[in-house]
Amino acid sequence: MRTLIRNADCVLPDGTRRTDVLIQDQTILDVAASRATAADEIVNASGLTLMPGVIDDQVHFREPGYTHKEDLHTGSLACAKGGVTTFLEMPNTNPPTISRAALAEKLALAANKCVVNYGFYIGATSGNVDELRRVDRTPGIKIFIGSSTGDLLVDEQEALERIFAETTLPICAHCEDEATIRANMALLDGGREPADHSRIRDHRAAAIATERAVNLARRHQHRFHVLHVSTADELPIFSDHQRLITAEACPHHLLFNIEDYGRLGTLVQMNPSIKTAVDNAALWRGLLSGQIQVIATDHAPHTLEEKQQPYPRSPSGLPAVENSLALMLNAVHEGRCSLEQVVRWMCDAPARVWDIVDKGRIAAGYHADLVLVDLRKRHTIRNKDQVTRSGWSPWDGVTLTGKPIRTWVMGRTVYVNGKFATEVRGQEARFDHARGGYWATEGAS
Ligand code: DOR
To answer: Could you tell me which of 99, 95, 84, 86 has the C-alpha nearest to residue 141?
Structure first.
């Protein structure tokens, strides 16, 4: 099967150019194909922009165990609609993904259910270093240095030292300091209102844990990715990256701050908590200066009913995967960043951080994971239109300019203009960790 996408403005590794892209089966065959090329399908993309599919390296899709919130099928549909062609999923399911057997089960479920490509982290515990040493078919190891949804906390120094010393896979971590969280909780009597969430999970909690993790990574010379940076305070901690450390920001930490609790209450209750307008600005600066390399969502769906319980009974987390690209296209429209930067943060950088084979770029030989976007399209996010099983968005009612309108996964159209090809199945992403990650591939074409 050959598809020719004609006349799109294509975001290529060396810049954006109007050209034709030829797909053969699962692969991009040619960029700048000749007009006379024979194809089974010709897509006229005049006036539209073609970019690599988004790789979201931090989602929670809740299967197995919490499928009333989301499952691998509904989460992957939300991805397809949002222009996300590959997701990497976190291990805090039930059972948690903390063994090779649990990982194999998730991969088998995903092969049956996912309309986009997938990969799954393995979770660290204080006692599973042997599993972590033997596992493959994974982007890396996730450590919760600070509790969040689930019970995958690893807080003891000795256990952390062993994980960094005795494993070779890249590590990423949720960095919020447990002792600080508990002390703040005691001071605030557990918390009474949603805004207390940011007083409990405060700037110090984030900075102390990030410092601790970065220190481990440096001492053990271990590749390390700081998930969901939420404060200005963390940036200097990892800016001396020593070609080992990368970091990421989430749309909710860029776009929401404590002023939003009044309007949105527990809907913006997240771990790490949202912080201040000063932190929003610092995270944007971190992205623009290259201190933060990746944007990912931390898509963490809970039902509205669960979220509407009074704080602190309300769970932390919000769904975002189907709107993250549109939110960033809107940021391009507002002049906060360029389209090429969005592609670097959401497509190319995550592929390089996690050594994902043949993804993240529009180039001959790469997988045909592509998104066609209309940069001028104005649209309003509505809860009723959300395909995540949780059925809501914290951006309900927000009007954006810029929208993904068609998504290809491994050469097949999975989403176009509101319609899904639900029979399409994504593939397991492959990780070639010998590549050495983001910094090892800096400057490589
Ligand atoms: O708010 C959060 N919710 N942060 C996390 O790190 C986990 C997530 C969840 O799984 O609900």
So the answer is: 99
CATH of domain 2-50+364-375+400-420: 2.30.40.10
Phi, psi (degrees; rounded to nearest 5) at 314: -65, 135
Q: Check: CATH 3.40.50.300 for 53-358? A: no
CA distance 430 to 136: 10
Judge if the beta carbon of residue 174 lies within 6 A of ligand 1: yes
What residue owns the CA closest to ligand 1's atom 10? 149
Check: CB of residue 223 under 8 Å from CB of residue 433.
no
Residue 246 Cβ inside 6 Å of ligand 1? The answer reads no
Q: Could you tell which of 92, 200, 299 is best to mutate to test the pocket of ligand 1, judged by most ligand atoms within 8 Å of the CB?
A: 92
Q: What is the mean pLDDT of the chain?
A: 97
Could you confirm whether 20 is annotated as catalytic?
no
Q: What is the CA radius of gyration of the chain?
A: 21
Q: Is pTM, for the whole model, over 0.85?
A: yes
Q: Cβ(54) to ligand 1 under 6 A?
A: no
- Expressed in percent and rounded to 5, the helix, strand and coil fractions of the chain are 35, 25, 40
Residue scoring higher pLDDT (33 or 411): 411
| Domain spans of the chain, in order of start | 2-50+364-375+400-420, 53-358
Q: Give the nearest ligand 1 atom to 301 CA.
A: 11
Q: Determine if residue 232 is left, alpha or beta; phi over 0 gives left, psi from -120 to 50 gives alpha, anything else beta.
A: alpha
pLDDT above 70 as % of the chain? 99
Question: Does residue 223 have its Cβ closer than 6 Å to ligand 1?
Answer: no
Question: For ligand 1, what atom is nearest to the CA of residue 315?
Answer: 11
Active-site residue (options: 56, 177, 298, 358): 298
